[in-house]
Amino acid sequence: MTKAAITVKNVKKEFKGNEVLKGITGEVAESQVLTIIGPSGSGKSTLLRAMSQLDAPSSGTVIFEGEDLTKSTKKDLSHLGEKIGMVFQNFNLFPNQTVLQNVTLGPIRVKKLSLEQANQEAMFYLKQVGMADKAAAYPNSLSGGQKQRVAIARALAMQPKVLFFDEPTSALDPENVKEVLKVIQKLAAEKMTMVVVTHEMNFAKKISDKIWLMDNGKVIEEGDPQTIFTNPKESLTKRFIEQVVFD
């Protein structure tokens, strides 16, 4: 039986009295790729932040490796930086540091690696994403796609158990999208446990083991890509799929 990597139970989130997440329950298995899709404003990124504990839910539970993260203190959660990786849509690289320094920062500060070991491992991950030749470059000299690949290498350098992606291609020009998606697709093939919020439907079809379709703060349907895209059960799912396919 496949072990659950992350389990969420009745997760809710409120902002100023507005309920953005309305009781989300489900799980992501180890080595599984869960893709979260749905219209803008449906709560996708809020759910991702709640699952990764970047933003604690208002109520409900998030269980990771048997630990209820919602009952843990900030001190208890300090270890999560080593186990849960996040790739943001706007890269969040440090402009005053080289590509190599951006990737080694976490392993040196958090994992207490030596500079030599951190550099060695960073070059391995930069090579994986096709950015080893840019190790000495600064982020401002890179394209958006290159910056995002560096951000992925930075997340991988922490050797996380789960990797979260929040719209990883939404800030990119079309010509840069393909190179980033290729890297994520490779990670999926290597059985990296991932949760991906995306608006790229063809990409979601290719990499997903399971898809959650959200609308108005709820997961209205879940299933494998074949079911979601060709034989959805819910009318809301059908309308969304028709809209994104034929727009």
Automatic annotation (TrEMBL):
Q: Which CDD domains match?
A: ABC_HisP_GlnQ
Source organism lineage?
Bacteria, Bacillati, Bacillota, Bacilli, Lactobacillales
Ranges of residues in domain ABC transporter: 6-241
Which SMART domains does this one have?
A: AAA
Question: Which superkingdom heads the taxonomic lineage of this protein's source?
Answer: Bacteria
Cellular location(s):
Cell membrane
Q: Which InterPro entries match?
A: AAA+_ATPase (IPR003593), ABC_ATPase_HisP-typ (IPR030679), ABC_transporter-like_ATP-bd (IPR003439), ABC_transporter-like_CS (IPR017871), MetN_ABC_transporter-like (IPR050086), P-loop_NTPase (IPR027417)
Q: What is this protein called?
A: Amino acid ABC transporter ATP-binding protein
What is the predominant subcellular site recorded for this chain? membrane
Fetch the SUPFAM superfamilies from UniProt: P-loop containing nucleoside triphosphate hydrolases
A single GO molecular-function term is: ATP binding
